[in-house]
Amino acid sequence: MLTDYFISHGLSFFASGWMQFGAAFGTAFFLMLICGRPFIRAMHAWQKRGQPISENVPDSHRKKAGTPTMGGLLIVAAILAGSVLFMPLHSNLPGWIALLSLVMFAALGFADDYKKVSSQSVKAANGLTPLMRLVIEGVFVVVLAYLINLTMPPYIPEYSLAIGSGIILPLGFLYYVFAYFVICGGANATNITDGLDGMLSKLYMPVLLVLVVALYGATRIGFMDTVMFLPTVSGLYAVLGAAFGAVLGFLWFNAKPASIFMGDVGSLALGGFMGTVSMLLKSEIIMGVAAGMMVLILLSSFIQTMCFKFTRKMTGTGRRVFLRAPLHHHFEELGWAETKIVDRFFIMSILFSGLALALLKFA
After folding, report:
1. Separation in Å, CA 333 to CA 9, 154, 233, 298
2. Are 21 and 240 in contact (CB under 8 A)?
3. Can you tell me the distance from the alpha carbon of 307 to that of 311, in angstroms, rounded to the nearest whole number?
4. What is the number of H-type helices and E-type strands within the chain?
5. Which spans in 9-92 are helix H?
6. C or N terminus of the chain, fewer CB within 10 Å?
């Protein structure tokens, strides 16, 4: 909106990508700070007893009962506001696709959160079943993958995977399978990571930084030999800036002790958004490296479940690899303080993101 005005009046500095990023960041961040406390009070009044606490968590989590959830609604609203105000509204299909992904996964998460809060139960029967959620996510991915393919320039084959800027692998139908792993994998990784106060926000921001660097490389010829030149994605500057500002602003209220939880509406939205942006930038592998800590958390839950089912079938008694899954609960059972786990996982996220940046520049 404002960017279109600046472009039409020849104010190139204000229409630049970094100006869009900064303006959207500031807008989303201050919206979170200004609206955060009234939003928390509204959620308290509406939800009464707050988010139900799962039985599959350490006993220390019981004291969090009554904390309201669905803080992701405010995150999504701040991202939408910052993006629409400062991104180009015309000829910006990538920007709209990223926001579409955000809204679709937020809607799915809201449905899950609403059923849990209204029933005061975290059992699958009272929310969306895992199978139901995976099917709905699959429908989202088909739509998003088709639209993402439309944004690719003519010199990139349809439905292809780019490894750096020199290797392009046409995938055909497998492109949709690949997109499912990237987008749904991102959504479920962030969803499972959101288990301790402030953790998802802290682990998410280094990954966002990597995506911003990949975006800069994709819109500057010669800046990075390993990044595909994609001039159409320049409209993502405002979108990523708004996401950065909203997540940082949410951390103000979600840091321990959390005044509000993000909920599935936020964690699924941010994960689906992350995967979608990485596909728009042809940086899926780089994003996977940057999100390495989230991937490990997701894998810990998968390994625990598979090991338990396999050993129960073979021996009659299910055995566990971890004291408790996901990974952060394992360390809680070992006696680590919640803040120590969050800070150390944050350090690991920075290291994984540093590795991703090195691969961007030198791979």
Report:
1. 60, 53, 44, 18
2. yes
3. 6
4. 15, 2
5. 12-15, 17-47, 72-86
6. N
Tell me the C-alpha distance between 258 and 68, whole Å: 9
Q: Which residues contact 122 (CB under 8 A, 6 or more apart)?
A: 52, 53, 54, 55, 116
| Residue 170 bridge partners (DSSP) | 160
Q: Count CB-CB contacts under 10 A for residue 306.
A: 11
For Cα atoms 350, 277, 205, give the angle at the middle one, nearest 5 degrees: 25
Q: What is the distance between the alpha carbons of residues 6 and 304, in angstroms, rounded to a whole number? A: 53
Distance between CA atoms of residues 194 and 260, nearest Å: 12
Q: How confident is the model at residue 359 (pLDDT cuts 50, 70, 90)?
A: confident
Six token digits for residue 158: 């349809």
CA dihedral 238, 240, 245, 248 (to 10 degrees): 180
d(CA 290, CA 208): 9
Q: What are phi and psi of 68, to 5 degrees?
A: -70, 155
pLDDT in tens, 74-113: 999 999 999 999 999 888 999 999 999 999 999 999 998 8
Reported pTM: 0.91
The DSSP symbol for 123 reads S
Q: Where does the pLDDT of residue 12 fall: very low under 50, low under 70, confident under 90, or very high at 90 and above?
A: very low
Instruction: Answer for the pair 294, 356: CB distance below 8 angstroms, yes or no.
Output: no
* 6 pLDDT more than 50: no
CB 216 within 8 A of CB 227: no
| Encoded tokens for 287 | 């994003």
